[in-house]
Specification:
By secondary structure, the protein is of the alpha+beta class. Helices cover 21% and strands 30% of the residues. A hairpin with a 6-residue loop joins strand 13 and strand 14. The N and C termini lie far apart (184 Å).
């Protein structure tokens, strides 16, 4: 018969073989057989499975009898207080008498997952992608569960909800920490759920997004910079839509162009709805760097990143001192040759008004319209001035006629015969003022 002490020892060993502390997680589901996970900074307890109740156990660390500092044995278990990364390794338990191996485990230490940071972006109006970064470095294998739910704002929408309103944000192994939702609705809102899981636990982040607000196209492609013949201050720039943006009439892009001479750091910027643009204030004889970015035509979302740089130099066929020299890329040019000799050589910001061999038809029409408007205003001023002069002359003519009639009447009265004067009686003041008839 077994003594009571022996029975107690058997029970203790059995419990030690099956119990695991809260800081330990076995990892068969993580594809690492025989690995035990523990939390950094917490007490870790290792158990030797399959030992007999009466066996005396000794532990070894990476094959050596020396164990991490502070470790101790408790009834066949090995306790590692406040374990840190240097305590990782392979631990094995052996029968103290025979040295027979009884069991082993690989210890890996790490942290609980932190709340991941998540952002989303739509490179077109049909799909959007979400990206995340772990909140903390866990030192442990990690998985992410990414799902979405279309937000239903009214009770009617909830009743009409479809299975497609909830789904997985598909992860691509080639793009870690990213997932994509296909066939999204441009004006809809979504709630994204990114859950980070490791052998010690899990955390999650919820993010509400509207596809319209996260539109950010990819940069335009096929950027080209070409000189304009006989125009030493002009460059023609053209580009194409990004291949990820479908060309639909109701979802178009606008563009922003920036350019500068190689030797300067400040950019000139212009905005356009076209897929080509004419630079009219290029610096004669110098190469220019050009980039372009894109944005939804109705200002939804944000501007794309700048495209890869392209460069070009204005035509030099009518500049004798420059036409014979070879075109040099910025990396090939000598540093001294790229420095301007004086401030007078800085590029002018005013448009180039020099004549070009092949004029732009739009410029001709603009000049003709301007001349017509100017001629109309000049003619109108002349007509108004002539009308005012005519009115003034007419008024003076009437006043001159009136004075002439009064003068004639006065002369006529002065030359009246005296015989007629006797027939009339004039007042005394008249006789004093005039000699006739008095």
């Amino acid at each position: 018969m077994l003594s009571p002490i022996s029975c107690v020892s058997r029970v203790v060993v059995l419990l030690a073989a099956v119990l695991v502390t809260t800081s330990i997680t076995m990892s068969g589901e993580w594809g690492e057989e025989g690995v035990t996970y523990g939390q950094l900074g917490k007490d870790v307890t290792l158990t030797c499975a399959g030992i007999s109740p009466s066996a005396i156990v000794e532990w070894r660390w990476d094959g050596a009898a020396e164990l991490p500092e502070g470790s101790r044995l408790q009834q066949g278990q090995l306790l590692l207080p406040q374990a840190e990364l240097p305590s990782e390794g392979t631990y094995s338990c052996h029968d103290a008498a025979s040295g027979l191996l009884l069991g082993s485990a690989i210890l890996r230490l790490g942290r609980l997952p932190g709340v991941p940071s998540v952002s989303c972006r739509a490179s077109n109006y049909e799909n959007f992608s979400c990206f995340w970064a772990p909140g903390v470095e866990t030192f442990l294998p990690t998985r992410y569960i990414t799902t979405y739910r279309k937000k239903l704002l009214t009770e009617d929408e909830r009743q009409r909800s479809q299975p497609s309103d909830v789904g997985l944000c598909v992860q691509n192994p080639a793009r870690p920490h990213a997932c994509t939702v296909s066939k999204a609705q441009f004006w809809s809102s979504y709630r994204m759920n990114v859950t980070e899981v490791n052998p010690l636990g899990s955390t999650f982040r919820l993010l509400d997004i509207t596809v319209q607000a996260i539109i950010k196209p990819d940069p335009p492609e096929g950027l080209r910079v070409e000189p304009v013949p006989s125009a030493p201050r002009r460059l023609r720039v053209s580009w194409e839509y990004p291949s990820t943006w479908p060309k639909e009439p109701h979802f178009q892009l606008k563009f922003r162009l920036q350019y500068r001479p190689f030797i300067y750091s400040s950019w000139s910027v212009m905005e356009t709805g076209n897929m080509s643009e004419l630079i009219t204030d290029a610096f004669m004889g110098l190469g220019h760097v050009v980039q372009v970015s894109a944005k939804d035509f109705l200002d939804a979302g944000s501007w794309s990143e700048w495209s890869a740089e392209a460069w070009g130099m204005p035509a030099t066929d009518n500049i004798p001192c420059l036409s014979s020299g070879p075109t040099v890329a910025p990396s090939e040019a000598a540093p001294g040759a790229m420095e301007p000799e004086s401030p007078a050589e800085k590029p002018s910001l005013a448009p180039d008004n020099e004549p070009v061999g092949q004029s732009d038809p739009t410029e001709k029409v603009a000049v003709l319209v301007s001349l017509g408007v100017f001629a109309f205003f000049v003619l109108a001023v002349i007509l108004v001035f002539g009308f005012l002069m005519w009115i003034r002359l007419k008024k003076h003519g009437k006043e001159a006629t009136k004075h002439h009639d009064l003068l004639a009447a006065a002369i006529h009265m002065k030359t009246l015969p005296r015989g007629l004067c006797k027939l009339w009686t004039f007042p005394k003041w008249c006789c004093q003022a005039e000699s006739f008839c008095c």
